[in-house]
Amino acid sequence: MPPTQVALAHEYLTQRGGAERVVEMMVRAFPGAPLYTSLYDEQGTFPEFRSVDIRTCGINRFPTLRRHHRLAFPLLARSVSRTEIDASVVLASSSGWAHGFRTTGRKVVYCHAPARWLYQADRYLGEGKESDLPQRLRTRSATLALAALGGRLRTWDQTAAGSADRYLVNSTVIQRAVKQTYGIDAEVLAPPPALLPSGPERPVVGVDGPFLLCVARLLPYKNVDAVIEAVLGTDSGDLVVVGEGPDRERLEGLAGGSPRIHLVGRIEDPELRWLYQNCRGLVAASYEDYGLSPLEAAAFGKPSVTLRDGGFLDTVRESVTGVHFAAPTADAISGGIKALDEHDWDVEVLVEHAASFAEERFVARLREVVDQELSVA
């Protein structure tokens, strides 16, 4: 039987984040292509994947690992390496594992970032910030596993990166990181905003204006705690935090029951559209490899207050589509919020900025790259 022409891969489909949004676009770019992944949690990730031909690794049979993918840390490299994808070209969306799938044909890696747990472990794990015992134990287990396996995993990671025929990256930050980490010259292909105004909206119960919006997984390195502290320390209205994660209990404690802080958890796209449409602006204080959420905000004509670091420098134009602050501290963020409120933003310019990152451009280049690889497969 001849191999599949094009197959897709992603490390695990267990959550809802920017990387999973990019995979959705890849699915639309290559309709009918099978999608390989280590773990798939239908309830944890976007519902759009339910209609996709998803093929999982053997560890997917363990429900606990699907719900808590960090527990699978010691198993992922071996599990992915033992899975061979029979396809002429595999397009792998990777931030640490998917580039390790074995392939019978050509391999194109779209890299969101070299593995944080190997090269930025302190930032990724955030040990010491957890508030609940189960999460502390999970983080401690991951830390111990990294200490024991780190050297071997770095060797595996370097080999996996070297197995690719072509590397694409999402930002200039990751372009530099890939060169430094792997010695690979990669092409920057910035992903578009995934959520656009064209679609249904649904109000979020208990939320009304004026409010600021923060869209982030609740992980320590996202610095949502600093955003909450900044809002609580000013009279800048309410804050709505969209996202779920192991840091939630600690953040709820930090909010102290304030009616101004709304931790709404995981919501559906119609509710997120309503929040973007009705917020004053977006606040993002994390160290991001690519600044996706400010592009989504701009598509709705809303400015952003972001950390002057990383991928936000690629997607936010200072004083045109947003303002930057120097450090993820409450004082610095407060200053950024004040600057946002005092600036006169041009909605048309914001929307045009988001449109310059259109999905059509992204998909066209992906197809062009895959066609080039098919020609030599």
List the keywords.
15 helices; Rossmann fold; 17 strands; alpha/beta; globular; six-stranded parallel β-sheet; 377 residues
3D architecture notes:
This protein is an alpha/beta fold and 377 residues long. It is built from 15 helices and 17 strands. α8 packs across α13 and α11 packs across α14. The longest helix is centred in the middle third of the chain and has 30 residues, at 133-162.
**Name of the CATH architecture of the largest domain:** 3-Layer(aba) Sandwich
Shape: globular
CATH topology of the largest domain: Rossmann fold
| Average predicted confidence as pLDDT | 91
Rg, please? 20 Å
Short description:
The chain is α/β, with parallel strands linked by helices and 377 residues long. The protein has helices at residues 18-29, 63-67, 73-81, 116-119, 121-125, 133-162, 172-182, 224-232, 248-255, 269-278, 292-299, 312-315, 330-342, 347-355, 359-374, and strands spanning 4-10, 12-13, 35-37, 39-40, 54-56, 84-85, 87-94, 102-103, 106-111, 166-169, 187-188, 211-215, 238-242, 261-265, 281-284, 304-307, 322-325. Helix 11 (292-299) packs across helix 14.
